[in-house]
Amino acid sequence: MIRTLTGTIKDLGENWLVVEVNNVGYLVASPTLTSNYSLEQKVTLQTYLAVRETALDLYGFTDKAELEMFELLLGVPKVGPKSALAIMTQATPTLLSESAHKNDAIYLHKLSGIGKKTCENVVRYLNSKLDSLPLSASGDTPTDGLNQTQTDAIDALVSLGYDLNTSRETIKSMSEEGATVNSLVTQALKQIN
């Protein structure tokens, strides 16, 4: 089993990269849309090797919490490695953990864009595994919980065509005291542009 991979990124695309280790290039499926990778960057990835009858597929993540959440997602009915990776590109381990603690599939669906039925299955499964959630993503009080005003502001930015992760991170970084949806969106647009 390959558990970590340290090398240099030689090629990358949407949700994959090639990591060269001792003159051997490993194709690794990875949430490249949510991580800041660049060519010739040295990386250490936490990996999962999916063994199938016709292929050996390597999945890589920047930290152990992401890998642990990925492995938990593999336990969700009808979620294989490719689906779990797709979920990880749309929702952070913290967001998945928040949704599980709240037992709220609508919250996950609203913030991630993952299909409603998949969200229900993921939240139901993760809620039954609260003790197994990665340490950096678990806790009784999620560290980046968003209130309704912030959630609505994120929705507004996404509807304007901005990336979900960028919108979420921008809104999270702002002071929420006395803020309205309009004021948050206005501030976010100034920061993003």
What does this structure look like?
This protein has 193 residues and is α+β, with helices and mostly antiparallel strands. It has three domains: 59 residues, OB fold (Dihydrolipoamide Acetyltransferase, E2P), CATH 2.40.50.140; 73 residues, Orthogonal Bundle (DNA polymerase, domain 1), CATH 1.10.150; 45 residues, Helicase, Ruva Protein, domain 3. Helix content is 44%, strand content 20%. It contains eight helices and five strands; from the N terminus they run βββββαααααααα. It has a five-stranded mixed beta barrel. A hairpin with a 2-residue loop joins strand 1 and strand 2. The radius of gyration is 18 Å and the shape is globular. The relative contact order is 0.10.
Brief account:
By secondary structure, the chain is of the alpha+beta class. It has eight helices and five strands.
List the helices and strands and how they pair.
Elements: E1 4-13, E2 16-21, E3 24-29, E4 42-51, E5 56-61, H1 64-73, H2 81-90, H3 93-102, H4 105-112, H5 116-128, H6 148-159, H7 164-172, H8 181-192
Please tag this protein with its features.
alpha+beta, globular, single chain, OB fold (Dihydrolipoamide Acetyltransferase, E2P), 5-stranded mixed beta barrel, DNA polymerase, domain 1, 193 residues, Helicase, Ruva Protein, domain 3, 3 domains
Distance between the termini: 44 Å
Characterize the biggest β-sheet: 5 strands, mixed, barrel
Number of strands: 5
Mean pLDDT: 83
CATH topology of the largest domain: DNA polymerase, domain 1
CATH class assignment of the largest domain: Mainly Alpha
Domain count, please report it: 3
Query: Rg to the nearest angstrom?
Result: 18 Å
- Fraction of helical residues: 40-55%
Strand order of the largest sheet: 1-2-3-5-4
Low-pLDDT ranges: 136-143
The helix tally amounts to 8
Percent of residues in β-strands? 15-25%
